[in-house]
What we know:
Number of strands: 0
Number of domains: 1
Order of helices and strands: HHHHHHHHHHHHHHHHHH
CATH superfamily: Amino acid/polyamine transporter I
Structural class: mainly alpha
Distance between the termini: 22 Å
Radius of gyration: 21 Å
Amino acid sequence: MNASSQLNRTLGLRLAIVMVIGNIIGSGIYKKVAPMAAELHSSGWIIICWVLGGIITMFGALSNAEIASMLADTGGEYVYYKKIYNRFFSFLYGWSNFAAIKSAAIASIAYVFAQSLNSIVHIPAVFSSLKDFQIAGIFYPFEGFNVKLVAILLILILTWVNSRGLRLGAGLSTFLLLLVLAGILTIVVFGSTSAQADISASFSMATTNSQTVTISAIFTAMLAAFWAYEGWNSVGFLGGEIRNPNRNVPLSIAFGLLIVIVLYVLTNIAYLALLPVASLEQINAAGNSIAAVEAVKVFWNEGGVIFISILILLSTLGCTHATILSNARTSFAMAKEGLFFPKMAKVNSAKVPGNALWYQGIWASLLVLSGTFDQLTDMLIFAAFIFYGATALGVFILRKKMPDAPRPYKVWGYPIVPAIFIIFCVFLIGNTIIARPREAGIGLVLILLGIPFYYWFKRKKSS
């Protein structure tokens, strides 16, 4: 193989775990408790949804880990789906990752970074006269353009950093993650032990609207929780750059996700001990407030605003960086096979897929202009769970197609664990179509756009 298309295996287990955690902890831990409160109206049910979301995500991760232990390589699920299904479905996943899932995740997290920066240092308005300009009554690209412009600049700067080399990118992820973990643990400890905290209030099953919590409300609220857990599978995209990937990829997914689940539950207990559900509902209705900021205000007053705003800046900076780093590898793997834009198959002098990083950065920047934070996250979670369910189904298919293949790791609780995850994915997808039709529709359109592109790339490859 040509040296210009070779990647270096430079990441061990420790850095792989850092990449898992760094890809997950972004904006969800600070913002998503408010929309969950608006759906559930009960602190106890919010905690249940965080725990349930973590368990379901772990079921999906354990299912993914069995396949990763067999087939680990650059591109993650893109590589797995060729063995499980066929090249067409594999392409559709890679296309969806580029068009709707990971690129939208980059856009969403960068957007929250810019929002948080604006809360510390007011960013002057830009093109305010165009704020009511709209496309089809859905997209308002110039609304809050000052914030969106900062988000775009962040994406482009971090894309440049990642194009300079993998070790540089992984080192930055480690440094940022240590700062973020220290900050989050500070909130948990000081928030939970402050005189204003009422831990028992975090587990109250009473609702503020005196109505019973419905199954649909639980699934809709869990869209928020799943956004916070999103990114756990990104280390699989780096399979070609991880030492001993068949062992280290599944281990990093399991350990990294377990750490995040514990951290999320403890942090949300602290939030709910400090803020009544009714206050969180008001924060959600306001649209421009962040729940974590209001919670820290309770025990540190206005001085806490700077602390939490800086923490959100670091978290979203680290998560945007980690997502940019990992996701471009899928597009690179597709291009190497002639099923994506040819220039994306090239490795630069730093031995990273520089062109794939820049294509991704430009598209993510356009997605920043397309909608609000919650619109983007609901859309990408809907799209992602279509493929997460397909990966879990792949455990059953490969057990039948390749019964004698070496499996360094076998999913715990087979066949119940992957079966529960598949059933849950079906319900989540169906409920999102009913409860969030616009976001589901945009996600489906972006996925289906991959069909004509597949045949176009295939024809170009043949010719």
